[in-house]
Write a structure and sequence with these properties.
- The structure is a homotetramer.
- Chain A is of the alpha/beta class.
- Chain A folds into two domains: 49 residues, Orthogonal Bundle (Helicase, Ruva Protein, domain 3), CATH 1.10.8.420; 107 residues, 3-Layer(aba) Sandwich (Dna Topoisomerase Vi A Subunit, Chain: A, domain 2).
- The first copy, chain A, is built from nine helices and six strands.
- In chain A, strands 4-3-5-6 form a four-stranded parallel sheet, covered by helices on one side. Chain A has a two-stranded antiparallel sheet with strand order 1-2.
- The radius of gyration of chain A is 21 Å and the shape is globular.
- Chains in contact: A-B, A-D, B-C, C-D.
- Chains A and D meet through α5 and α9 of A and α5 and α9 of D.
Chain lengths: 195, 195, 195, 195
């Protein structure tokens, strides 16, 4: 129904995370209404993104500016003996917001749902082994999902021979949680982790 | 937290329809993972969109190709004595899919929630008055929302003096609808429109 | 975990429409907190329900009071030449609220999802055939669901030989409905039923 | 619209937890369809409920049978030096299911949203003070909601002078929880409670 250029762009937007064909077509009609200046601004922002944004050579977080290290890894006040392993960059923001963690991060680059060799190879395991050399505590902060749990178990197996303290995030009732609706595992962890 | 270029692109994506900051940031990290070729394809598709896509000089539907008219308005088999007024282009697809309508369309360009002068001025009222000259029936196919209803009433007032047959879409129970959960107005329309 | 009497009552409440075990157990603890007077009121209301409530001998609606007919069938102002067939008694209230219908009702007693003989036998088909004798128009007001549609088709087949005008509720966009989200059948009906 | 007896029973059912008028009316029509035997079974179960079910003289849990104590408080294998305070009886089942707790319970009888004197008076505070006399650890297992938190703080203030160890359930990510969607407080607790 839609013309060729519109269909092509709908197809591209449909690959964006969470976007289906209906929203993708609304994106295209939104773009058709934008001014020349707004289109140029969008195109410019997309095309310079990869030029300007670098990945930190220590933690693999994105950053801009001079040097090899991101603003967290450069910060002399962050505790270099602590390393928090997270699955992906968007997990870093909520941790920073808690203001309970003053160490550095390591972005693993994914998780391993089913211990498939090809999934494991996508993770930055080799780099992780190098980063933990002078570290006293590694905090495995993967999600509490099945995939995150499998990844955490895999990391524990890899890091155990290196004789570093390995911890994992506490499990329990989240804020607003009710006992009546809690699953057994969460509630069991809440009992074990009482204090 | 995110670097400047990332923040700027998040801000731009947040203006896209239905997109909030969380999904916007996922878009940016998705783009960071794309290859140079994929980024170029996206940029190219966006930048040529407005060059290639024209608006039909009769109905204002988007189209590509030769001439001034879209493929529907050009089609000699479409009944030129019927005109269906819709709020926006995305409303055209579901009507075409019904295969119950063989006339032409007119895309009004919006709706008027509160009869504000500035909202009315955004609609293509002047063009509509010209388009209905040789038309026998105008079907007002605005949404059944408050805004769509207000727009329909406004159009009826404008078109009535021109002595054309004016119809509106039938109201009633939608497919899957249950009487127990139907509102009074819908069910009342369903009774009046029984056949 | 719960004691025997509690478990038994939970089991009974779980058979109530829409009630699962969690809500059923909340019902029991709610009852345990009620006063003797409140429990007696509940028990009294349940036990006299079937004694006091009769089914109308014409339409099968529940009613209390003298005579064989409910307050609608007794009402001399209701048009006896119109008969509206509904699946169940709770469908009657929303129709009455529209104030668009002044005839009488007939409660069919269910619907037939798959034309099974045992489902058909539960419906009041024999009674329906008697009720339509002096009627000019029968309005089949089954739900717009698959089951309601199948029931309507079955009723049409049964009533057609009797030479009565048979109508069905109009289909179309419900109040608040948007074209973009309407299914093809609903929108097709809305086009056919335009006026 | 509905007759008097039906309306009265709808009104009574509307007071049941989570039940609105629509479901309440479905309950009544469900009851109208039940057999005499089923109605009698329901009435019998309700009327004997309060006779048969007793509240444990120690923990206030409901139970049936001989004696003053429920099956948990009677059980010699439960650790009498541990006491878990819960808001209401339905919170006990999920804790038992975890099989991580071998002590006894105390059902507080509610929570205090706003420290109102009348709310506090409904709680079994006096009884609680008596129950903790020979206890070594009191586990406050109120919900992680605002009301549960307020109640926990109130209990801590009351129990502190008695020189008993007071603990609370661990907070953190629940099973299935993702960092990206966790609130700051939950994630902060997860970091503090890492192990």
């Amino acid at each position: 129904m839609y013309s060729q250029s519109i269909q092509k762009l709908i197809k591209i937007f449909t690959k964006f995370p969470t976007i289906g064909p209906r929203i993708a077509s609304r994106f295209v009609f939104y773009l058709l209404k934008l001014s020349k200046e707004e289109i140029d601004e969008l195109i410019n922002s997309i095309s310079t993104l990869k030029e300007k944004v670098k990945l930190c050579s220590f933690c693999f977080k994105s950053f801009e500016g001079e040097g090899e290290l991101c603003e967290i890894c450069q910060n002399p006040q962050r505790d270099k003996t602590l390393l928090c392993i997270i699955e992906k960059e968007t997990d870093l923001i909520p941790i920073e917001k808690t203001q309970k963690y003053q160490g550095r991060y390591f972005i693993l680059g994914g998780n391993i749902g089913k211990l498939k060799q090809e999934d494991i190879e996508k993770l930055r395991i080799k780099e992780l082994k190098e980063r933990v050399k002078d570290v006293k505590e590694v905090i495995i902060a993967t999600n509490a999902t099945t995939e995150g749990e499998a990844t955490a178990l895999y990391l524990e197996r890899i890091l155990k021979p290196l004789n570093i303290k390995i911890t994992r995030l506490g499990r329990g009732l989240p804020v607003g949680g009710e006992l009546e609706y809690a699953d057994e595992e969460t509630l069991g962890s809440a009992f074990e982790g009482r204090k």
